[in-house]
Automatic annotation (TrEMBL):
Highest taxon above the source species: Eukaryota
Transmembrane segments: 118-136, 148-165, 226-250, 257-278, 284-305, 317-338, 344-367, 411-430, 459-480
Job description of the protein: Sodium-phosphate symporter.
Origin species: Cephalotus follicularis
UniProt protein name: Phosphate transporter
Subcellular location(s) of the protein: Membrane
Pfam family name, one: PHO4
Length: 481
């Protein structure tokens, strides 16, 4: 018996919802009016019996408009290149090309829940701002030639910063989106604010290494034009590679890119003597130490959570008590690094402790407001021994893991949801302060050369250059991140 498939819609509706299973089949199409449902029109699809190679999953089509009774039916079929399916393959090829052209706009549209046209307009506005804002910056210098070269240099720096935002920011916010703690839109907006703040407030901490710690300045003494060309070439090369990696979805290190570009320029001009190898060794050692330190700290934090929260008699109360402590430590460390009011250690430490205390109190109040009813419920109930945990057996080497359940589980999930977001915020802020130097370090050195500074002199990073780097990171995050 030959099966029939129906595509049904009401007479006044043009947005049918149907389930189709189509695969490499020719259909005898017949318009059919049901005698039992006079307001419903159906398409009777009788497939020609052909040997099936495989079955596609059921494809649900929501709000798909059919302007003709038989229009677009074949577009849902997947062809294997035979049985007269060349037209379908051609349509799929054109659709693939169109998809590649608007992939970046679709990403922005998905993040902000806007149309592709609106995303395109935002991209145009960002490009317009990138071309016009440098004209208002004091770092352009004096004289027409200096201004033109400074303008081009700022565009090179923006290109590098844009690619940093497109590639690296996902390292900070990806876990929050993946765990469901933040939506994609919330993650993008939060990262934009924190990345810019980190670049503006902490961007000078690593910039000096990028300016003077990679290349030996004496080798380029009296050859400032050559050094300027090398710095711009490094920015262009690193930015191009980052854009290629971002296009294909490869998470790469922006620090590796810019340092490799500068080392390559130095070796090409002055050989091994043009590279500051001792400083480069310290930078390269961090590429090994950082993952090891991250693994060690992660292990310690996990053990503490396992011991003092999950295994506590009341895990919900323990999680609510641990969250302010963790925030105090994180905020104190960041404020000590970002806002040193004085070089006097007691004053700087007092400032950090004050900021940490304020952050801990704020988180404590938020948790009590959002989860207070659950905390009261968990405190009033006195579970029996081992009644507040679930023992999971036979799950590999983690055979003894215990976890809360019921109200306790709700509290723990709620608290750690806040902690997940806060840890991502800390990382995003630190990333903005650290990685913006990969763009503004060579940029500031090039601007200093254009304005008459010596190649090895100390360079003061203007606030507008820091803001320019932060804007580039945010723009890359919004468009491609």
């Amino acid at each position: 018996m030959t099966p029939s498939y129906y595509l049904s819609c009401t007479r006044n509706s043009t947005t049918p919802e149907a389930f189709l299973v189509l695969y490499n089949s020719h259909f005898y199409r017949t318009k059919h009016r049901s005698p039992f449902f006079p307001n419903e029109t159906s398409l009777l699809l009788n497939p020609q019996p052909l040997p099936q190679k495989s079955l596609l999953p059921i494809l649900r089509l929501n709000n798909s408009k059919l302007t003709h009774p038989f229009a677009s039916i074949s577009s849902f079929a997947e062809a294997d290149g035979g049985n007269g399916q060349e037209g379908v393959n051609s349509n799929r090829h054109r659709e693939s090309e169109k998809t590649e052209q608007v992939a970046d706009l679709r990403g922005m549209a998905q993040a902000f829940n806007i149309s592709s046209r609106t995303a395109s307009a935002i991209s145009v506005c960002i490009a317009f701002a990138a071309l016009t804002l440098p004209l208002c910056m004091k770092s352009l210098g004096m004289g027409l030639k200096t201004k033109l070269l400074s303008y081009a240099t700022l565009l090179f720096g923006f290109y590098m910063a844009w690619n940093i935002g497109a590639n690296d920011v996902a390292n900070a916010m990806g876990t929050s989106v993946g765990s469901g703690a933040l939506t994609l839109r919330q993650a993008v907006m939060t990262a934009a604010v924190l990345e810019f703040s980190g670049a503006l407030l902490m961007g000078t901490h690593v910039t000096s290494t990028m300016q003077k710690g990679i290349l030996v300045a004496n080798v380029f003494h009296g050859k400032d034009t050559l050094l300027l060309a090398g710095l711009l070439s490094s920015l262009a090369a690193a930015g191009t590679w980052l854009q290629v990696a971002s296009y294909y979805g490869w998470p790469v290190s922006t620090t590796h890119c810019i340092i490799g570009s500068m080392v390559g320029f130095g070796l090409a001009y002055g050989g091994a003597g043009a590279v500051f190898w001792s400083s480069l060794a310290r930078v390269a050692s961090s590429w090994v130490i950082s993952p090891l330190m991250g693994a060690a700290v992660s292990f310690i934090v996990y053990k503490c959570i396992r011991r003092f929260v999950y295994s506590a008699p009341n895990p919900g109360q323990a999680a609510a008590a641990a969250a302010p402590i963790a925030v105090f430590v994180g905020v104190s460390g960041i404020s000590f690094a970002a806002f040193p009011l004085s070089k006097i250690w007691p004053l700087a430490i007092a400032q950090a402790l004050a900021c940490g205390t304020a952050g801990a109190v704020l988180v404590y109040r938020i948790i009590r407001r959002q989860l207070g009813h659950l905390l009261i419920k968990s405190a009033s109930s006195q579970p029996e021994a081992n009644d507040n945990v679930i023992q999971n057996k036979n799950i590999g080497f983690l055979s003894d893991i215990a976890g809360p359940k019921g109200t306790q589980l709700e509290i723990v999930y709620g608290v750690f949801g806040y902690m997940q977001v806060l840890s991502a915020c800390f990382m995003s802020f630190a990333h903005g302060g650290n990685d913006v130097s990969n763009a503004i370090g060579p940029l500031a050195a090039a601007l200093s050369i254009l304005q008459g500074g010596a190649s090895g002199a100390d360079i003061v990073i203007p606030i507008d250059v820091l803001a320019w780097g932060g804007f580039g990171i945010v723009a890359g995050l919004m468009m491609w991140g």
